[in-house]
Amino acid sequence: MAGRIHIFDTTLRDGEQSPGVSLNIQEKLQIASQLAKLNVDVIEAGFPIASKGDFEAVKAIAQKIEGPVIAGLARAEKKDIDRAWEALQYAKKPRIHTFIATSEIHMQHKLRMSREEVLKRAVEMVKYARSLCEDIEFSAEDAFRSDPAFLYQVFEGVIAAGARVINIPDTVGYATPIEFGRLIKNIKENVSNIDQAIVSVHCHNDLGMAVANTLAALENGAQQLECTINGLGERAGNAALEEIVMALHTRKDWFSGATGVITEQIHRTSTLVSKLTGVSVQPNKAIVGDNAFAHESGIHQHGVLNERTTYEIMTPESVGLKENQMVLGKHSGRHAFEERLKELGFSLNKEEIEACFVKFKDLADKKKTVSDQDLEALLSEKITEI
Ligand code: KIV
Ligand code: ZN
């Protein structure tokens, strides 16, 4: 049994770290306002110390966007935390999100710090952040590749220091679902004060398993899920918000918890993010790709026209689309062809339909899809022949 699942959207921070993506303040505000309509619980608005532009964007979002918690990222360093707070202080519900790496690889080669130093720094900086802001999230960067015993120690320390949320990232997308689920379960069993914090996960998609890992974590007790619109993010991206949310929405029989996301806003949010970032969505992308609710083959079209649940596990309306799409191509059958003719206002007798259907199949063999304009041209040609 599970209750409310918190959705933490990091499109404006980790999503913006996608190669080639850079959003200005107005664009960030537009996306943040749409994320508020989508009703996510937390918007990570940026990394204030990263640039003046990012600082101003986080500040503007903190001042103007109401509803969700507004978070800003900071390394576990005083100057980062001060800068984050400078931008976030205007928010009705501000959160400082501070992080430090805990894996041997990162501590040795990037931070050049010992375990003891990392633990001390994490605890000190959470205490410091807590002196400025009530809501503190702590992330153990590269948690999945960290020594679990050390992770437990770090999480215990930062919770005692006042962290309200502890986040477990699979920073390099290395985990598989069973392993990641097990890690979450072990953290819940081995961190003595875990009940005083919300357990969060943050999965990257390097092996294409970010959503699967996130759902495995949820099954093992995670309460906050970090994700981005369209799965945007560093390298291969982050867990896609729309996939997580619609998996939960569609499979209530599998998991009883619910998010607060207004699913009918999903499509609009995806289109806006794609337009403003310039990163297009692949056609076969789950939930938001152009083909996600399109049916081409005759067998599928016939099925859906008779009873949509034959080939649709969720409705297009549930993600904010008006209707599904019957794509006419060489695999389409008479049934869908006749339906489309009726929709276009043609009423033909059996013989005319038969003659046009033959012409349509000829054309479909030459073209990938047959558009309404193609049909109209074909029909006017055929009708004048008849
Ligand atoms: O992937 C990661 O580890 C991060 C942290 C900063 C949360 O983005
Ligand atoms: Zn990340």
TrEMBL record:
It catalyses: 3-methyl-2-oxobutanoate + acetyl-CoA + H2O = (2S)-2-isopropylmalate + CoA + H(+). Its EC number is 2.3.3.13. Pathway: Amino-acid biosynthesis; L-leucine biosynthesis; L-leucine from 3-methyl-2-oxobutanoate: step 1/4. GO terms for molecular function: 2-isopropylmalate synthase activity; acetyl-CoA C-acetyltransferase activity; manganese ion binding. The keyword Manganese applies. It comes from the Bacteria. One of its GO terms (cellular component) is cytoplasm. Mn(2+) binds at D14, H202, H204, N238. Homodimer. Belongs to the alpha-IPM synthase/homocitrate synthase family. LeuA type 1 subfamily. Catalyzes the condensation of the acetyl group of acetyl-CoA with 3-methyl-2-oxobutanoate (2-ketoisovalerate) to form 3-carboxy-3-hydroxy-4-methylpentanoate (2-isopropylmalate). This is 2-isopropylmalate synthase. It comes from Geosporobacter ferrireducens. The gene is leuA. The chain holds residues 1 to 386 of 508 of the full protein.
